[in-house]
């Protein structure tokens, strides 16, 4: 191994450790993490943003794979990809509307802080979905009936959604105390779009492999 290769490897390791540390802080203390960007002018490097995004993607992909458990390996892979796509679109499509509505209602929150609050929330949601995989797996194996599995997944999504609303509300309230948790209503639009996309992509069709 050459000296250049060694330095490159050490540099990448340091970047990965820094990203993991920041993501861990964002998940443990989302309000403080976002507030540091807002008030302390702490500019997180690109790989921290990428780490938050990767956490959200990992959560939606792995949980999506558990949704396709009855359909075999191919169905699991397809569901994992479609779940991530649907969740990503559900957050990305209404995000400009959040900033516009906030600005029209008197918010002075910059674009970066708004996006960071949304990204921290999706990252937290991804972790919550990973934690919910054993629940979905257990009931899918124990009672492999599509209507029942649909009910279980809807309950899981509802629980994760309520938790994400709480995280997003706390972050936004910390960034702009005078506005409180009013922006959390925007998540209702995210949920509506997400539900439509999940139905469109057939993620609620729990096919049993013959």
Care to describe what's here?
It is built from 8 helices and no strands. With 210 residues, it is an all-alpha fold. It has one domain (3-200). Helix 1 crosses helix 2 (30-39), helix 1 (3-28) crosses helix 3 (46-67) and helix 2 (30-39) packs parallel to helix 7. The longest helix has 32 residues, at 111-142.
Class based on secondary structure composition and strand pairing: mainly alpha
The span between the termini is 51 Å
| Gross geometry | globular
Number of strands: 0
Beta-strand percentage range = under 5%
Helical coverage, percent range = over 70%
Largest sheet entry: none
Spans of 5+ residues with little confidence (pLDDT < 50)? none
Specify Rg, calculated over alpha carbons.
19 Å
Counting DSSP H or I runs of 4 or more residues, the number of helices is 8
SSE order: HHHHHHHH
């Amino acid at each position: 191994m050459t000296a250049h290769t060694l330095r490159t490897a050490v540099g990448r390791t340091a970047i990965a450790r820094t990203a993991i540390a920041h993501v861990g802080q964002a998940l443990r203390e989302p309000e403080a993490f976002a507030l540091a960007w807002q008030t302390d002018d702490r500019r997180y490097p690109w790989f921290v943003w990428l780490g938050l995004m990767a956490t959200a993607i990992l959560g939606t992909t792995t949980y999506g794979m558990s949704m396709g458990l009855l359909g075999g390996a191919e169905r699991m892979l397809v569901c994992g990809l479609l779940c991530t796509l649907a969740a990503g679109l559900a957050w990305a499509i209404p995000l400009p509307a959040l900033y516009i509505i906030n600005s029209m209602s008197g918010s002075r929150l910059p674009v970066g802080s708004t996006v960071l609050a949304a990204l921290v929330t999706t990252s937290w949601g991804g972790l919550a979905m990973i934690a919910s995989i054993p629940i979905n797996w257990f009931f899918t194996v124990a009672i492999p009936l599509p209507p029942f599995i649909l009910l279980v997944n809807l309950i899981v999504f509802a629980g994760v959604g309520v938790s994400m609303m709480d995280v997003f509300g706390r972050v936004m309230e910390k960034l702009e105390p005078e506005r409180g948790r009013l922006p959390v209503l925007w998540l209702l639009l995210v949920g509506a779009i997400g539900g439509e996309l999940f139905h469109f992509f057939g993620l609620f069709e729990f096919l049993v492999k013959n």
